[in-house]
Amino acid sequence: MDSQWRQLAQWIGQSNRIVFFGGAGVSTESGIPDFRGAKGFFHQDREIPIERVLSIDFFETHPQAYWEWFAQENAREGVAPNAAHRFLAELEKRGSLSAVVTQNIDGLHQSAGSERIFELHGNWSRLLCTGCGRRFSIADFEEARTGAVPRCPSCACVVRPDIVFYGEMLGSGVLEGAVRAIADADMLIVAGTSLVVYPAAGLVDYYDGDRLVLMNATPTPYDSRANLVIRDPVGKVFAELARAV
Ligand code: NAD
User: Fold this and answer.
1) By CB neighbour count within 10 A (0-12 exposed, 13-18 middle, 19+ buried), where does 232 fall?
2) Residues β-bridged to residue 162
């Protein structure tokens, strides 16, 4: 095993309040593109830029664009938790990981079995009515998987995903929970995030221990603060660690 991976494995073995803070790069090996990575959404030639499709102003006037994008994303075959999601769920079961903080909306940490998750930007499988606030699951609206705009059976208003669109505030309860978990962590693993989206990126500042691991394919503004920087794919690293730790 590579010496950096060995160091990571050793710290994981010695820690019992690990927090994992991840971004879109954690799910690229599951088949979901990130935003800023080499094959990310920002580099795709799209009629409507993704940041517009995912902004609240645009959703309010063009909900169809979001639901068409959602249908396209959900048509991808073989999307499932990868070795990183699975290993984190395993660490939680063993009692050494206290929380997963994620910027992802894809729900893959839940699918892998993680339970203590702070989803900073929500989850696209949870839905709510824009009129009466009634809550739903994506399973209640199979038509949404074909791009049709789901409507509330109670009041007929448009149903939206329970995600934080650009232009919206993060939920204060989720943010406070994530801050508390990170401030209390004895190891912080930050992975698959460019650390440029705020306020999420600023969460790293709440960790003041000496086991800050930054695992990202490309440089981030926080690399110089990390105790260990790893550039290898997060799923590949965790697949190896699952065998070793
Ligand atoms: P980002 O696209 O800005 O950055 C992803 C980073 O991960 C890049 O620096 C890239 O080099 C790196 N990366 C990609 N694959 C990797 C891998 N296998 N191993 C290691 N590093 C890898 O993503 P972000 O920082 O999370 O910010 C984007 C925002 O977009 C987030 O708020 C998130 O909500 C949203 N988003 C979510 C999903 C999802 O739910 N899966 C997908 C795309 C975007």
Assistant:
1) middle
2) 123
| Residue 43: Cβ within 10 Å count | 12
Three-state secondary structure call for residue 100:
strand
* Ligand 1 pocket member 193 (CB < 6 A): yes
Note the pLDDT of residue 45: 78
Query: At residue 235, what are phi and psi to the nearest 5 degrees?
Result: -65, -40
Distances (CA, A) of 217 to 25, 34, 128, 241: 8, 12, 35, 18
Cα separation, 38 vs 163, whole angstroms: 25
Choice among 43, 62, 109, 121 that is catalytic: 121
Q: Which residues of 173-210 are buried (b: 16+ CB within 10 A; e: fewer)?
A: ebbebbbebbeebbbbbbbbbbbebeebbebbebbeee
Nearest to 19 by CA among 176, 229, 191, 173: 191
For residue 68, the one-letter residue type is E
Residue-level length of the chain:
245
Q: What is the pTM of this model?
A: 0.96
> For residue 234, how far is its CA from the centre of ligand 1 (angstroms)?
11
Q: 121 catalytic, yes or no? A: yes
CB 186 within 8 A of CB 211: yes
Query: In angstroms, rounded to a whole number, what is the distance separating the alpha carbons of residues 99 and 65?
Result: 34
pLDDT at 191: 98
Q: Is 44 exposed, middle or buried (0-12, 13-18, 19+ CB in 10 A)?
A: exposed
Instruction: Using 50 as the pLDDT threshold, list the residues of the chain that sit under it.
Output: none
